[in-house]
Amino acid sequence: MRVADWLLSAAERGNRATRLDRRHPDGAAWTTGNEVRPLVHGVSYFAELVRCVQLLRAGDLLLFTDWRGDPDQAMSPHGIDISNLLCAAATRGVVVKGLVWRSHLDAFAFSEQQNRHLGEEIEAAGGECLRDMRVRLGGSHHQKFMVLRHPGRPQLDIAFVGGIDLCHSRRDDGDHHGDNQPQPFAAAYGPRPPWHDIQLAIRGPAVGDIETVFRERWEDPAPLIRNPFDRTIDALRREDTRPEALPAQLPDPRPRGSHTVQVLRTYPYRRAARYPFAPEGERSIARAYEKVLARAHTLIYVEDQYLWSVEVAACFAAALRANPGLRLIAVLPRVPDQDGRLSQPPDLVGQQRALDHIRAAGGDRVASYDIENDSGTPVYVHAKVSVIDDIWASVGSGNLNRRSWTHDSELTCAIVDDAADPRIPLSVSRFGDQARVFARDLRLELAREHLGRARDADADLVDPRTAFTAFADSAACLAHWYAGGEQGPRPPGRLRLHDSPRLGRATLAWATPLYRMFYDPDGRSRTLRRRDCF
User: Fold this and answer.
1) Contacts of 467 by beta carbon, 8 Å cutoff, 6+ apart
2) Would you list the DSSP string of 461-499?
3) In the predicted structure, residue 112 carries a pLDDT above the cut 70
4) Beta-strand relationship, 61-66 and 95-101
């Protein structure tokens, strides 16, 4: 199999200004020899993060970015919180540097105060955490990653990349009883919203690429905030707005595994104060999807927080039309995350239109599900995961929506394993590419959770075709149990057929024209053009 058929070249990335690809001696737009481990759920991620951060010592380096950070978020049931974890590292001489989104006003259900307080506590301990508002109007910094480097101990170097923020509601596990520190959320998810999410633990040369993503943002000379009112407030607070220089970057860690990793990003085009590392923006996440979906032949498996916007759905619809044997499974949240927002009805219109577009192309080869815990409470799917033909897998912060493909900063990692999975040859694509171990194992791990299966009970899931049927059968069995008045033991599995909540006529009367005329469900007010993504 040619890895280049599944990953973007430096030219296909479409961003000549970045040093991300130029830093590789061979000019490749990816690194080989990595070891990648998926950490499904916040409990798994937080436990591994605590373990790794506590190994840091004076002179080591900790770099992180986040969309939201709650200082008191517990990392274990009775253990340290995120602020104390990072502050303790800074106190013992670790170089701690952070970039968190400055956010919008708290009145709009964002996180301005939480992000400021986390930064203040880290600064007081000797670290440096900047609130970064170098975004396009209405946009955000949505990247969620951490890099740990160890001078003289490169075998410990690690990066964490994915969709899990260092904040409330994220510390859940496979039982999905929710985090005991919940954030305000839609009532359908109960007082402790169950949360499904994933982060990657990456070791090997790709750590250097992910560190480069941080350094490019950190070294951006543009002011952190351009709003004169906010700049005045920052000056009165004596808030640090000029980043100190970072230590020189260490050589990349040595190869240690079989995984090829490509770092994919979204950066918007900014008319003023352009990013020096992406003056025209970067759309490599969108471009990667366009490339791999054109090769999809057997199964597209996605878990996503949104999957809305017809323009994004068009890539999936085109793949389904081109390949009559291709199937698609989508695992989505049952309802949006907030009640009562003016944007919610257009959001629902947008998702329904996107799903209708995909279903029109694929018919009964398309199946969308949401999930619930064993008590029947919906689980909020915050994961951003894709597995294509059990060959290409991606995990990151970027959702399948317009703002993640064009407007916010995002970071996603695509993984192609050198090791082929020999268990079954039926997944061989029309290009002769055999399934890879990492992608298939990731899909099977997620499928076992949703189907209520033990680790050794997935033989019928290895073949993507029978996996598609197993999902449908499980959802039908659970629906039958509900229809029968919940008599007898609850069947195994958590899958429910998903359809966007239907709106009443009065709501549709204003929400649909608003969506069609000028409102995108991601809050953008202009029509998406192909050149904006590709």
Assistant:
1) 299, 329, 443, 447, 460, 461
2) GSSHHHHHHHHHHHHHHHHHHHHTTS-SSPPS--EEE--
3) no
4) parallel
